[in-house]
Amino acid sequence: MPEATRPPSTRYAPNPYEAAAPGTSSHTTTPGISPHTTTPGIGPSATPPGLGPHPAAPGISSYAALGDSFTEGIGDETPGGEVVGWADRLATRLARHSPTPEFRYANLAVRGRLLDEIVEEQVPRVREFAPDLVSLCAGGNDILHPGSSPDDIAARFEAAVTELTGAAGTVLVFTGFDPRDTPVLRRLRGKIAVYTAHIRAIADRHGCAVVDLWSLRAIQHPRAWSEDRLHLSSQGHEQVARRAADVLGLPRQQEPASAWAAERRPWPAEQLQDLRWFRAHFLPWMARQLRGQSAGDGMRPKRPDLSPLGKATAP
User: Fold this and answer.
1) What share of the chain is helix, strand, coil (3-state, %, to 5)?
2) Would you say 229 and 273 are in contact if contact means Cβ atoms under 8 Å apart?
3) How far is Cα 114 from Cα 139, in angstroms, rounded to an integer?
4) pTM of the model
5) Whether 143 contacts 176, CB under 8 Å
């Protein structure tokens, strides 16, 4: 669902695994919602509670990704400025197990998009593509708007899911992140939790596969988030790609594991860091929202057509 916000740099236990893509970076520009918990990470072989492999996963030879900056991949850029992200990383994994020699992939996500914009601009393309798999993560930007209703957003999300289930073999959806300890955004925790519950219920009603970001311990560490605290870092996108691959029942890769040490700073230093973040990143984002502007205004999707994946751009 969301574009996301990195947690404060304290309060974190070591995370037992990390997988950064060589040559990737973590600089971004637009916001969303982030997790903040004190629980330790989970190992790469653990199965998330209630999230076993989806029975429709085998036989995926085409994939279309819909959404906002989270799915576009903001925060996971190569040195040359190319945006990668969890969806590209997942596509590369799917291609390795495709039943056909030519795996096809489209990424229609554009940063800053609201749910209605995603439905209007991106969902109709899926009817044209008729892919084996479509992922939809949307509504996070809507939740951040003052006065927005998670019930209303969920109703519109379900209408989109209904349309997608008739056009794609498998529909993959995402819950929200938990902003429990995030400055400012923690005030929206109730709305985000209600929307997350709706996503789960919608998935149950329509037989969708679910990536539970609320419980994803692998990204409950500052290194999983970009410097602006608004998007996942390359490492964070990699963890989401791993979870999505697990949910879809792909074989587990033998990937190296290493620990993320806890980062602890004195309370005054933490408060100063939060204030700097608020001024440098959150306030400019809020100003754009009040002006009705978006970081994605005038932008086109990076992969607008369902075309052969070609050379892998992510591990």
Assistant:
1) 35, 10, 50
2) no
3) 6
4) 0.75
5) yes
